[in-house]
Amino acid sequence: xxxxxxxxxxxxxxxxxxxxxxxxxxxxxxxxxxxxxxxxxxxxxxxxxxxxxxxxxxxxxxxxxxxxxxxxxxxxxxxxxxxxxxxxxxxxxxxxxxxxxxxxxxxxxxxxxxxxxxxxxxxxxxxxxxxxxxxxxxxxxxxxxxxxxxxxxxxxxxxxxxxxxxxxxxxxxxxxxxxxxxxxxxxxxxxxxxxxxxxxxxxxxxxxxxxxxxxxxxxxxxxxxxxxxxxxxxxxxxxxxxxxxxxxxxxxxxxxxxxxxxxxxxxxxxxxxxxxxxxxxxxxxxxxxxxxxxxxxxxxxxxxxxxxxxxxxxxxxxxxxxxxxxxxxxxxxxxxxxxxxxxxxxxxxxxxxxxxxxxxxxxxxxxxxxxxxxxxxxxxxxxxxxxxxxxxxxxxxxxxxxxxxxxxxxxxxxxxxxxxxxxxxxxxxxxxxxxx
Length: 436
Prior knowledge:
By secondary structure, the protein is an alpha/beta fold. The chain has 14 helices and eight strands.
């Protein structure tokens, strides 16, 4: 694939790949399968798996010592890769060899807590420590420490200086900043890794293992390591994509979205707009589901059930709220998912929630893509709007009547666009005729 072929592929297929997919499909909350036959096989395998895990722990200590004793070279990577195969971690390269030796930044999707170790078995690269405290554990896990960097801005500047240093290994970065199950979709890529260099090399990673899930949301790296040693094998399939360069006038976020889409197409997934913060909010809500009372649903549509039917369980209710939250997120992409979910738990109605968020945009913490509130802050109130301009959607557009509730999705988006346009015109003092 040539450089000129990337942009047409990205632009023509993007709308088809951005499917509506609930955030619950991106993560696994339970380790064991639901299928009865697989559970039986896992139970029969458990004694063998425990013995295998104990044996592999002993071998793993030797693998760690060998990797520390030998200098970074092709010979060391080959020896450690063979020893990791004994531990049940099989790494294979698929597709044509497209690795660019001059690339300074590798961009990879994030599936397990050991992805950087797997890539290090194939090529020399460094991954900075973004979470956790620096120290022996950070070094032992194969992360690179930047002791002087105390914030994201300082870390970015330190990484830029690193990339400009000659004869150093490339950086391996995970723009998702958190793991997924590696099956449904990718989290939205952060823009800061794409400000380090004008050209990056995407790396597609697929992870498969039998009997149990590859990773779960509430598991530590120690537990993940023990489960990796317990299962018969885990297959890591690595595929190098052609390098991608930033176009003239392209912002880091646009560059990130383009690379995200290319990786999603290669992996057969969807590129979502869910962020690491949305994952944390979803996990928090999943663990602490507050019981609903009759008073919390005042004003919502009454829910009726057929005679003899049972009430839906907590899991069914969570999936229904998550599906409704995704519908609202599609209309109001700048509203945090947690704010949408809280309002849906109160109203139990998509249309009512959309109306509430639009009519009370100053109180619902609407955020722009740059991360700053789109409305005026509480400490610095905006000047009063002219009396001749009504910038909020009128009641006949987003009302509460049955007719208004059945507005098509296209009409809602058009009304929201017109609302934002009028606010922009008023804020900058533009004329209605000359405004874009």
